[in-house]
Design brief:
alpha+beta; 6-stranded mixed β-sheet; 21 helices; 20% strand
Length: 586
C-alpha cells in the first residue's frame, strides 16, 4: 500500500457508534460517539467521533483513502434468504432489518454531508464478525492465535472463529441466527429487571451473590453442540419470530423484551426495575452466568483442540464478561489471552480498518494502552477554571496549579490515603468502556466504607456492583492468585485470601477483583500516583471507577468540572490543577 495511507474505520447505526483513524497501519485516534453526544451507547452515524479522529490525524475526508465499515449486507446472504423462506418471520421484523441495512448503505451520503474537502476514496464493508476478529488479533502481541468473536448478532451471525498467523486471518466458522449466547444473556438480564441496553454487567455483578439452586431451570434454555457451538431453546425467546422494538439511529439504543411468555410461565413473573432483589433473583443471576460460562468454555476448548494454539484473542460484546475471561487459564488449555480495550461493537471500527490495511500491509503494532481519545492543554484547562471561578468559589473550593508532577501525585496520593474521593483527569481519553487512569474517580481500597461513600457522593448505583482495583503490574502476584497482564480491566481474578481484608473496597463478595494492571511505560503519571500511594500505605493499588455520574465517561475538562461541582467529590485533579473542597463543605 502507498505511503501515508489513511483509513477511517467506523461502527455506525448500531449501539456504541465509534470511529478511528489508522495511518500506514498505525492507530492514530479512536473514540466512541457517546463521549461527544453525552448519551450512553449512542447509536447512529458517528459524525463527531469522525471529526475528532480527523483532527487528531491533522487531516480531512479529502485525505482519507478508504472508509471501512464493520457491517456487510452481503455477508451470509444465502443463509438469510434460506431462513426467511423456511421460517417466514414477522414482516415487521424484516422491515426493521431492511431499514437498518438501508441506513448502513447510506454511509456515502453521510460522508458527503460532513464539512471539509469531500471524500473521494473507496468504502469497504467488512463482515461484522470478521471485523471483530481483526480487532482482536491484529492489535494482539501474538504471532499466531485462535481468534473468536461472541456477541448478540451482526450480519446474521452471533459468533465466529478462526485463526491468525502473521498478517493472515481466517474466518472458519459461525453460529448463525437465531442462536446467540449474547441474546441468552441479554434476555435474562431483562428478565431480572435490568432493561437498558448494556445492563449485562449488572447481572454479572449480582451473580456473585447467588447459589446453584436455579441452575437446572436456566440450563434448559441453552444446549451445547458437538462442534463446539451452542443452541437456544427458541420457545423461551422472541427475537426470531416477533417484532422486537429496536432503535439504533440517532440516540440511546433501545431493545424490547427478548424473552417469551414461555419463560415467564416456566420461571415466574419477570422482576420490574423498581422491585426489590430477592434471593431467587440472585440465584437466577448465578445460574445465568454459569450457563454462559459452560457454553463459552465449551466453544473455547473445542477451538483449542482444533487449532492447537495456546494463545487466544477475543472480541464481541460477550468479551466484556470479565468474570468468565478471568477463568480462561483455569478452564481451558489456553495459556495466553488478549482482549483489546474496546472489545465490543465500538472496536469493530478498528477491526474494519485493520482488515482493509492487512489486505496488502504489514502487521500492526500491538495495542498496549487505551489512550486514543482527545486531550487538552494546560492553557485550555486554566482558561476553563478562570471562566468558572465564581461557580467554583460558590462550592467552597480552592484552585492551585502544581507544576511539579511529583508534588502533584504525592498530594493526590495523600488525599486518597486520607479517605477523600478524587477525580483524576489526565492526558488522552480512554478507548473502550473502562476508565483506565485518565478519566477516573479514585479512592482508598483499604476502606470498607468506600463503596458506600462513592455511591452516596457520586455514583448512586446498585450496592451489589463492585469497584475495581488499579494495581502496579509487578505487584499482581503478591495480591492475586493469578499473575498476568490485564491492562484494560477485562478480567476478574481471585484476590489472595490473606490480602482480602486489607482491600475490602475492591474485593467482591466472592473474593475476586476486576483488576487493571498499570505499568510505567503505558501511563507514567498514573503509575507514579499508585507508587506514591504504595509508599504511604504499603498497598500498591487504588480503587478506580469511571469519571461520570449516570452518564458517559467524561471527555472534556468542562464535563469533569461539572461532575465534580454537582457531586460531593472532594478533590479534582485536572491536568496540573488541583481543585479541592474545603473540609466543612464536603
Amino acid at each position: 500500500m502507498a505511503s501515508d495511507l489513511l483509513i477511517l474505520g467506523i461502527n455506525a447505526y448500531h449501539a456504541d457508534a465509534a470511529a478511528c483513524i489508522v495511518r500506514d497501519g498505525r492507530l492514530v485516534a479512536a473514540a466512541e460517539e457517546e463521549r461527544f453526544r453525552r448519551i450512553k451507547h449512542w447509536a447512529g452515524f458517528p459524525s463527531q467521533a469522525i471529526a475528532y479522529c480527523l483532527k487528531e490525524a491533522k487531516a480531512d475526508l479529502g485525505n482519507v483513502t478508504h472508509v471501512a465499515v464493520n457491517r456487510s449486507g452481503r455477508a451470509n446472504l444465502l443463509r438469510k434468504l434460506a431462513y426467511v423462506a423456511s421460517h417466514r418471520p414477522n414482516p415487521r421484523l424484516l422491515f426493521g432489518r431492511l431499514r437498518n441495512r438501508k441506513q448502513v448503505a447510506g454511509i456515502a451520503d453521510e460522508l458527503r454531508a460532513l464539512p471539509g474537502r469531500p471524500f473521494a476514496g473507496s468504502i469497504g464493508y467488512i463482515e461484522h464478525h470478521l471485523a471483530h476478529l481483526a480487532s482482536a488479533f491484529y492489535p494482539s502481541p501474538f504471532a499466531e492465535a485462535v481468534v473468536a468473536s461472541v456477541d448478540g448478532f451482526g450480519d446474521f451471525a452471533s459468533a465466529a472463529w478462526g485463526s491468525g498467523s502473521g498478517t493472515a486471518l481466517s474466518l472458519d466458522g459461525r453460529v448463525l441466527f437465531p442462536h446467540s449466547l449474547g441474546i441468552f444473556y441479554q434476555a435474562m438480564t431483562q428478565y431480572l429487571g435490568f432493561p437498558h441496553y448494556g445492563d449485562e454487567y449488572k447481572l454479572m455483578g449480582l451473580a456473585a451473590y447467588g447459589d446453584a439452586s436455579c441452575r437446572d431451570e436456566v440450563k434448559r434454555l441453552l444446549s451445547l453442540c458437538d462442534d463446539g457451538s451452542f443452541a437456544l431453546d427458541l420457545k423461551y425467546f422472541r427475537h426470531h419470530s416477533e417484532d422486537i422494538a429496536y432503535e439504533w439511529h440517532g440516540g440511546e439504543p433501545v431493545c424490547g423484551p427478548l424473552f417469551s411468555s414461555a419463560l415467564v410461565d416456566a420461571m415466574g413473573p419477570a422482576r420490574s426495575p423498581e422491585e426489590p432483589i430477592t434471593d431467587r433473583h440472585r440465584n437466577l443471576a448465578w445460574a445465568t452466568q454459569a450457563a454462559y460460562e459452560d457454553a463459552f468454555f465449551h466453544l473455547l476448548n473445542t477451538l483449542q483442540r482444533r487449532y492447537g494454539h495456546h494463545s487466544i484473542a477475543l472480541a464481541g460484546g460477550c468479551a466484556y464478561n470479565s468474570v468468565a475471561n478471568g477463568k480462561i487459564r483455569d478452564r481451558t488449555a489456553f495459556t495466553h489471552c488478549y482482549l483489546q480495550s474496546a472489545a465490543g461493537d465500538a472496536g469493530g471500527a478498528i477491526g474494519a480498518a485493520y482488515a482493509v490495511w492487512h489486505r496488502a500491509g504489514a502487521r500492526t503494532a500491538p495495542m498496549t494502552h487505551a489512550y486514543w481519545g482527545p486531550s487538552f492543554t494546560e492553557d485550555e484547562i486554566g482558561a476553563l477554571l478562570a471562566d468558572r471561578r465564581a461557580a467554583i468559589a460558590a462550592e467552597h473550593c480552592s484552585v492551585r496549579r502544581v507544576d511539579d508532577e511529583n508534588e502533584l501525585v504525592d498530594n493526590t496520593a495523600r488525599a486518597i490515603a486520607d479517605g477523600l474521593v478524587v477525580g483524576w483527569f489526565q492526558g488522552r481519553m480512554e478507548w473502550g468502556p473502562r476508565a483506565l487512569g485518565n478519566r477516573s474517580i479514585l479512592g482508598d481500597p483499604r476502606r470498607a466504607d468506600m463503596k458506600n461513600i462513592l455511591n452516596l457522593k457520586i455514583k448512586r448505583r446498585e450496592s451489589f456492583r463492585p469497584f475495581a482495583p488499579s494495581v502496579l503490574r509487578e505487584a499482581v502476584a503478591d495480591w492475586f492468585e493469578r499473575d498476568d497482564d490485564v491492562p484494560f480491566m477485562l478480567q476478574v481474578f481471585p484476590i489472595r485470601p490473606d490480602r482480602r481484608a486489607q482491600i475490602p473496597a475492591v474485593t467482591h463478595i466472592d473474593g475476586t477483583g476486576r483488576l487493571q494492571t498499570v505499568d510505567r511505560a503505558s501511563n507514567p503519571s498514573y503509575y507514579s500516583l499508585i507508587e506514591s500511594f504504595r509508599r504511604l500505605t504499603g498497598v500498591p493499588m487504588v480503587l478506580n471507577t469511571s469519571f461520570n455520574e449516570n452518564e458517559p465517561v467524561v471527555c472534556r475538562p468542562e464535563e469533569a468540572l461539572d461532575c465534580f461541582l454537582r457531586t460531593k467529590m472532594d478533590v479534582l485533579v485536572l491536568g496540573d490543577y488541583l481543585v479541592r473542597r474545603e473540609a466543612g463543605s464536603r
